[in-house]
Design a protein that fits this description.
- Helix content is 34%, strand content 25%.
- The chain contains 19 helices and 27 strands.
- Strands 2-6-5-3-4-9-8 form a 7-stranded mixed beta sheet, sandwiched between helices.
- Strand 24 (494-498) and strand 25 (503-509) form a beta hairpin.
Length: 564
């Protein structure tokens, strides 16, 4: 057996112009990573090179992924390059799988300098699907814009990368593996860890597990249905909800991670989580939830499939936040939502006199507020909810938050939400996604729309649809001044705010591969008529939004691809 030190190589390469990471990291079709020479290696080297050499040498980093196709291949490449770039220790989830919330937890627990998350979130997997790489920094959250810009600039001029091709790690066996490298004084260590335990222990310190166990497995217990959509969170659901809290094994479905997510779209939106929705219809389950591929998103359903919008979900948690022991001890410093998310949370913040922050669409803005001790609970309309226990949205945390509230309030999901509407009024909310729109047509439409709504004459205009009249109170291109560091983020979406508090938001999404995605958000506030059909109640705003934007004419699209 050859015990000589492993060779470290410097390999020449050429840059690619398209490796700018978004807030979600670098996402591409799998074939891009497979077919373009050194495409993966270039980006990984750019990530390592963005870290100061003094910080990198001998450091600890965390690696985990959602288990999608190409996850294992990419993990081996990261291990080889981490060793060659001076990292001292890698902590990797068993089989290379670790949910995004658990990665954030592990980074913070081990005081790592950061972590690499291999996920394309709710995008499809498999050989014909998507793959993604995201860098999280030492606070456990997504890298901020300064870091992602640095990574991108390095990727544009990269000429070589360092790797140790002879190093092969066994992802299937838990424990430490050590490797001697040439010209390295200390061995390189890889720890394959139980992906669940550290994260589960964190949750035990946040929630009252005894009360949850009584709710879920005691006399007259709640019957629940949880769908992991064959993503990374499946083992967490089984271990925490079934083994520890006593739910029957049949409560958890699609809990075996699969590289193609069983051919499903790993998105908790009820449009895609059809197994869960179908099983909830007959009323045998009191509570249902689904998670996306990497476990940071969630959807909440009540008996007979009663759907809780993500905007309402964070508002209900905020109004009942002291049902969670963590907040009884730590207190509540602030609430926050992304700008497109409905203003339901604002009404709770106003009533409770707790500061409310409205941020652009990216979890990193929440993390900055949390690091400064200004924020405790936050959420976004795209099925993300979280607290300040980590620096990522957290699907399983949101489910346990809801179950804690249900255990305390002793009401059904539907009654809890309807009581909330009666107390605060209701923000009817939806999002229209127009996918794969011609990029030039979409950009031109948004440019002309901004000119229209920022004209002085637009404010105070009145729009009448049927018996509803909406008067414009404010219209702008949203920009955010970070109260922590003063950073200004401009062009974060176009807002039209009406005098009754209703809003229309237009945004271009940056996560589509085949064209632009135009998103229209409708947020209609009703103080009295809180039990109406959402699409009926939102129809007047939808008519106004399409009239102002002329979207159908400008893009050639007659309807949205998806209604959320």
């Amino acid at each position: 057996m050859d015990n000589s030190p492993l060779q470290v190589l410097t390999v020449p390469t050429a840059p690619y112009p398209d490796q700018r990471p978004s807030t979600n990291g670098l996402r591409r079709k799998v074939y891009v990573f497979q077919s373009r020479r050194n495409y993966l290696h270039n980006f990984i080297q750019s990530v390592f090179s963005s870290i100061d050499l003094r910080d990198r040498q001998g450091s600890t980093m965390v690696v985990g992924g959602d288990g999608r196709f190409f996850n294992r291949t990419a993990t081996q490449v990261i291990v080889q390059m981490a060793a060659a770039n001076g990292v001292g220790r890698l902590i990797i989830g068993h089989h290379g799988i670790m949910s995004t919330p658990a990665v954030s937890c592990m980074i913070r627990k081990c005081k790592a300098i950061g972590g690499i998350v291999l996920t394309a979130s709710h995008n499809p997997g498999g050989p014909d699907g998507d793959f993604g790489i995201k860098f999280n920094t030492a606070n456990g959250g997504p890298a901020n814009e300064a870091v992602t810009n640095k990574i991108f600039q390095i990727s544009r001029t990269i000429e070589e990368f360092a790797t140790c091709p002879g190093l092969q790690v066994d992802l299937t066996t838990m424990g430490k593996q050590t490797f001697d490298l040439e010209n390295k004084f200390k061995p390189f260590t890889v720890e394959i860890v139980d992906s669940v335990e550290s994260y589960a222990n964190m949750l035990r310190n946040i929630f009252d597990f005894a009360a949850l166990k009584e709710l879920l497995s005691g006399k007259n217990h709640f019957k629940i249905r949880l769908d992991a959509l064959h993503g990374a969170v499946g083992p967490y659901v089984r271990r925490i909800l079934c083994v520890e809290l006593g739910c029957p094994a049949s409560s958890a479905i699609n809990c075996v991670p699969k590289e193609d997510f069983g051919g499903q779209h790993p998105d908790p939106n009820p449009i895609y989580a059809t197994d869960l929705v179908d099983s909830m219809r007959d009323g045998q389950y009191d509570f249902g939830a689904a998670f996306d591929a990497d476990g940071d998103q969630n959807t909440i359903l009540g008996k007979h499939g009663f759907f809780v919008t993500p905007s309402d979900s964070v508002a209900v948690i905020a109004d009942n936040i002291f049902c969670i022991p963590y907040f009884q001890h730590a207190g509540v410093r602030g609430f926050a939502r992304t700008m497109p998310t409905s203003a339901a949370l604002d009404r709770v913040a106003k009533a409770t006199k707790i500061e409310l922050y409205e941020t652009p669409t990216a979890w990193k803005f929440f993390g900055n507020l949390m690091d400064a001790g200004m924020l405790s609970l936050c959420g976004e309309e795209s099925f993300g909810t979280g607290g300040d226990h980590i620096r990522e949205k957290d699907g399983l945390w949101a489910v346990l938050a809801w179950l804690s509230i249900l255990a305390t309030r002793k009401k059904s999901v539907e009654d809890l939400v309807k009581d909330h509407w009666l107390k605060y009024g209701r923000n009817y909310f939806t999002r229209y996604d127009y996918e794969n729109v011609d990029i030039d047509a979409a950009c031109e439409m948004m440019e002309d729309l901004e000119i229209t709504i920022t004209d002085k004459t637009f404010v105070r205009q009145r729009f009448a649809v049927e018996d509803k009249i909406y008067q414009v109170e404010k219209a702008d291109s949203f920009e955010y001044a970070d109260p922590v560091d003063g950073t200004i983020s401009r062009n974060q979406g176009l807002r039209i705010i009406f005098s009754d508090g209703s809003r229309i938001i237009y945004r271009l999404s940056g996560t589509s591969f085949d064209g632009a995605t135009v998103q229209i958000y409708l947020d209609s506030y009703e103080k009295e008529h809180v039990f109406g059909d959402a699409q009926v109640m939102l129809a007047p705003l939808a008519t106004i939004a399409l009239k102002i934007s002329q979207l159908h004419h400008r893009t050639g699209r007659t309807g949205p691809s998806v209604i959320i």
